[in-house]
Inverse folding.
């Protein structure tokens, strides 16, 4: 009940609206390069139109980003009509781009009160790609060829693709393609895996900047299986109604971006590692949407700095991300301690119900973090609150289990002596069992803390910030130094937390 | 000689654990200032009987009295604070230094002079408070640990002390040493004491009266001399014989 009550309180806090007009426009993106770039373009167009913008980039995947939009946690993010049709509406593929757009426009407005702005002007469909040398030696040109000759292939597909009806399941139905093995690969590493020969076929995006970098052949969709995936701004309906000027600003981008241009911009981000902000600005300039005299973000073509230099240059950002990370871990951990330690003590007195309660907490632990985060969006939106609740949920079990076990198995002869000499049961618990259990309780807290430092990096998927931000963005943009600028401090933080708590644990060991 | 008043007594006390009979209509009496030994094999019920006096165990039938009052009418926590207790392994709280361990009962009772009481109790058992007060239990030898346990039982100044095989886990030399100093001390303090032991030598050396228990029943309850002189049952006779205690 306590947990429910706290959840309800959080819900109220998370949804209390600010004064009208003062709220920044929240722009979201999914965690891959083109989505970052388009979102950044939306943001800059809005800023040029006088809006304040809050960027919530790299949100989980379709499910999380769309939930965030529906609930108003995000006002606009770039989406693809085909994804809307198949993955969100769950309908059958339709081949005509105009029909798809008309259909999703109508259905999204009706079902979710969400608006599709007119498409941006390019399609980004799945591009099933193989290495050119393999394509040549096996004579692969189309997906039908792949289905015929690729039964001994190892496929490396993104998790999104493996699960979606317009992904692997549909591909199997339409072409009868059955690879020997399917490996789940993150978008960021699939091209490298293919080039290195770890896998034989991947799902790329037709506008990916990386297709050109590696020597790859995109197989023709000769049966027209993949529906049109036109990129467009997807907008929350309430936001659209209240902010016509923002819609006008965003619509300025409609029909302005060609596939060739997008591929070029994506290449600059994913291959040349130029900053997303800079490339977005150039893209907007090239279509005449922003003035030319915006301050330089960084000079294009500047020599890439070494990793140490890169980290040093970003030390301020990293420090503030680390502070946010520590905040997420610390607050959720303290809340979990406040709940789990007293609960553990209580369960020692009510042993019959102990196992079931602890198992319940353990069950919470088995929910995959991304799923837990996605569950919480309808309740808590995106950002810090759902991240805190998720981390809190994961911390309860190790602390509860260790507290209960620690006090239950505290030195029986000391417990017996305390009782025999006239301690009340409460005194035995507080002065004998609890101090004797302290190192065990502390070990549980330590486990929870270290797990939390790691799990908190996933909070970036729901816009909570922290050291996960550069990891998610770096993965999406194939930018290794960026990934390391989050991963190295996170690892260091885990070591520091572990070492500090280990020292506390030693100090708490009775009769040192 | 005055008639000794009874401090601890049981009357027809029985206790079952499922089908196991731990105590079967046991009646014993301990007079003021007397040391009474309960002796028997493992499972004879001697520890169960001891635990009835400070209500760590509740008998199924029969009555247990402390200074004439039925213990079921007394608050168990208050009762335990009036009765000293020494377990076999000392039962020292490992996270407390010796001084604090000995202060336990005066502290529970809210006495301001608990440190003085603890120091006096430590001196009584032959340990220097300045040397031992700040030691951790794990820094003590087995014998020292039992001395601290006795000091802790005595710190609040109880008239009665219950001891559950207090010297059983010690080596022979240390045990003899502790037995001797305990014997002197309890006579000086005129302590009433109930001592559980499986060592007939110890029982006969330390106790004024001995009760022999076997499978929850009293085989014989008699003064030490009487037991030695006139074993009431074959079992007691065999016990004396095995312990190589010859008739006087």
């Amino acid at each position: 009940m306590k947990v429910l009550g706290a959840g309800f309180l959080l819900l109220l806090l998370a949804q209390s609206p600010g004064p009208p007009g003062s709220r920044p426009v929240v722009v979201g993106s999914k965690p891959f390069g083109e989505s970052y770039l388009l979102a950044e373009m939306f943001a800059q167009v809005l800023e040029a139109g006088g809006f304040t913008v809050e960027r919530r980039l790299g949100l989980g995947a379709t499910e999380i980003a769309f939930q965030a939009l529906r609930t108003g946690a995000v006002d606009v993010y770039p989406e693809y009509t085909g994804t809307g049709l198949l993955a969100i509406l769950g309908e059958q593929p339709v081949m005509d781009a105009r029909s798809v757009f008309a259909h999703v426009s109508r259905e999204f407005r009706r079902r979710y009160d969400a608006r599709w702005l007119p498409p941006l002007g390019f399609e980004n469909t799945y591009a099933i790609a193989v290495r050119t040398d393999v394509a040549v030696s096996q004579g692969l040109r189309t997906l039908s060829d792949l289905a015929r000759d690729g039964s001994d292939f190892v496929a490396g597909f993104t998790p999104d693709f493996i699960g979606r009806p317009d992904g692997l399941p549909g591909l199997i139905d339409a072409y009868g393609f059955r690879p020997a093995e399917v490996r789940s690969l993150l978008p960021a590493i699939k091209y490298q895996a293919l080039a290195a020969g770890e896998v034989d076929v991947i799902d790329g995006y037709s506008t990916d900047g990386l297709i050109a970098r590696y020597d790859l052949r995109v197989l023709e969709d000769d049966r027209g299986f993949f529906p049109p995936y036109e990129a467009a701004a997807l907008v929350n309906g309430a936001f659209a109604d209240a902010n016509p000027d923002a819609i006008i600003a965003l619509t300025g981008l409609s029909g302005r971006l060609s596939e060739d241009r997008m591929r070029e911009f994506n290449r600059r981000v994913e291959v040349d590692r130029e900053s997303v902000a800079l490339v977005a600005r150039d893209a907007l300039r090239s279509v005449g949407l922003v003035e030319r005299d915006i301050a330089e973000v960084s000079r294009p073509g500047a020599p890439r700095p070494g990793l140490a230099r890169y980290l040093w240059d970003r030390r301020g950002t990293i420090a503030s991300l680390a502070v946010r990370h520590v905040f997420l871990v610390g607050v959720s951990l303290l809340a979990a301690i406040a709940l789990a330690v007293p609960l553990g003590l209580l369960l020692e007195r009510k042993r019959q119900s102990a196992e079931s309660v602890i198992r319940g907490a353990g069950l919470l632990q088995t929910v995959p973090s991304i799923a837990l985060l996605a569950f919480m969006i309808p309740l808590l939106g995106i950002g810090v609150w759902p991240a805190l609740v998720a981390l809190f949920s994961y911390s309860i079990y190790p602390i509860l289990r260790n507290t209960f076990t620690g006090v239950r198995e505290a030195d029986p002869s000391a417990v017996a002596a305390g009782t025999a000499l006239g301690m009340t049961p409460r005194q035995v618990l507080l002065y004998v069992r609890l101090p004797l259990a302290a190192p065990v309780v502390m070990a549980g807290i330590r486990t929870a803390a270290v797990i939390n430092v790691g799990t908190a990096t996933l909070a970036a998927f729901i816009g909570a910030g922290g050291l996960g931000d550069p990891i998610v963005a770096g993965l999406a943009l194939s930018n290794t130094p960026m990934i390391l600028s989050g991963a190295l401090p996170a690892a260091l933080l885990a070591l520091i937390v572990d070492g500090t708590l280990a020292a506390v644990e030693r100090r708490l060991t009775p009769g040192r | 000689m005055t008639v000794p008043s009874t401090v601890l007594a049981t009357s027809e006390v029985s206790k079952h654990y499922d089908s196991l009979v731990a105590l079967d209509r046991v009646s014993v009496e301990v007079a003021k200032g007397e040391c009474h030994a309960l002796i028997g094999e493992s499972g004879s019920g001697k520890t169960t009987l001891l635990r009835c006096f400070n209500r760590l165990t509740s008998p199924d039938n029969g009555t247990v009295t402390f200074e004439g009052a039925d213990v079921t009418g007394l608050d168990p926590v208050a009762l335990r604070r009036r009765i000293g207790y020494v377990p076999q392994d000392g039962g020292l709280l490992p996270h407390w230094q010796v001084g604090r361990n000995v202060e336990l009962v005066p502290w529970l009772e809210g006495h301001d002079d608990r440190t003085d009481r603890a120091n006096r109790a430590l001196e009584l058992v032959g340990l220097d408070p300045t040397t031992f007060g700040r030691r951790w239990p794990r820094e003590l030898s087995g014998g020292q640990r039992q001395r601290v346990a006795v000091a802790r039982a005595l710190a609040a100044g109880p008239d009665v002390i219950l001891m559950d095989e207090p010297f059983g886990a010690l080596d022979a030399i240390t045990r003899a040493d502790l037995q001797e100093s305990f014997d002197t001390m309890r006579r000086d303090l005129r302590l009433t004491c109930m001592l559980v032991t499986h060592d007939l030598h110890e029982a006969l050396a330390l106790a004024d009266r001995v009760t022999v228990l076997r499978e929850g029943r009293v085989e014989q309850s008699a003064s030490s001399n009487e037991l030695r002189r006139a074993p009431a049952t074959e079992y007691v006779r065999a016990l004396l014989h095995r312990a190589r205690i010859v008739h006087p």
